Amino acid sequence: MANPVPPVCTLALKVIPRAPRDEIVGWLGGALKVKLHAPALEGRANAALTEFLADRLGLPPRAVTLLHGDKSRQKIVRIDGLGRSEVERRLGI
């Protein structure tokens, strides 16, 4: 019997660094708008983003991976272990 494939979700994000606090704002077109307190210097905002999302989703940090947009506000993240509907439910979006 084949092993079931664990769920995976990808999300398009619009990230705003240097915000007063970390928060999920809501949908902006097809991307989820996320504000982060961390500056966009030396990868700090990217690290803060993956940690913030993992914490909000109740997942270990390694479950959230930045796939695209390392130096851009437009990013795509991969979330291992949850499907899209569960991600949206846990993030309250």
Structural description of this entry:
This protein has a single domain, classed as Conserved Hypothetical Protein Mth637, Chain: A (2-Layer Sandwich). Strand 4 and strand 5 form a beta hairpin. By secondary structure, it is of the alpha+beta class. The protein is built from 2 helices and 5 strands; from the N terminus they run E-E-E-H-E-E-H. A 5-stranded mixed β-sheet has the order 2-3-1-5-4. Helix content is 24%, strand content 34%.
Question: Could you give a short description of this structure?
Answer:
The chain has helices at 44-57, 84-91; strands at residues 8-16, 23-28, 31-35, 64-68, 74-80. With 93 residues, the chain is of the alpha+beta class.
